[in-house]
Amino acid sequence: MPEIIRDGQYVTFINIFRCDPYNQAEVVQINVDIVDQVAPRFPGFVSAIVHRSTDGTRVINYLQWESAEHLAAMQRSAEFQAIGRRFAGLIEFDPHQCEVVHIREASP
């Protein structure tokens, strides 16, 4: 399971994709294709988690990279661009670079 790192070692991104419930499964699949087929092949990738809202209107991904520049390099790649074009007409995109400020885990 991916570990959420708080110490500033990595850069965290939370991306929100607003979509029609009819398109949610496709938006999920595009995100999964990017994080499974493209991101791991690029230097600096740490982890990704894809979420979907239960009302069908959002897909959220949580990413950690070694730096924003590493993510940008992946996003400029032909592999990313080819898959990313599938988002056309399906989403409103709301990206955020974040800092992890607190983590609490269940006690064993």
Structural class: alpha+beta
Gap from first CA to last CA: 17 Å
Strand content: 25-35%
Number of continuous helical runs: 3
- Helix-strand pattern: EHEEHHE
Look at the structure and give the mean pLDDT: 94
Fraction of residues in H or I helices: 25-40%
In CATH, what is the class? Answer: Alpha Beta
Report the major sheet: 4 strands, antiparallel
Q: Segments where pLDDT lies below 50 for 5+ residues?
A: none
Number of domains: 1
Q: In total, how many beta strands?
A: 4
Shape: globular
The Rg value, from CA coordinates, equals 14 Å
Description:
It is a single chain. The protein is α+β, with helices and mostly antiparallel strands. It has one domain (11-98): Alpha-Beta Plaits, CATH 3.30.70.100. The chain has helices at 24-38, 68-76, 78-84, and strands at 11-19, 45-52, 58-65, 91-98. Strands 2-3-1-4 form a 4-stranded antiparallel beta sheet. Helix 1 (24-38) runs antiparallel to helix 3. It starts with 10 loop residues before the first strand and ends in a 10-residue tail after the last strand.
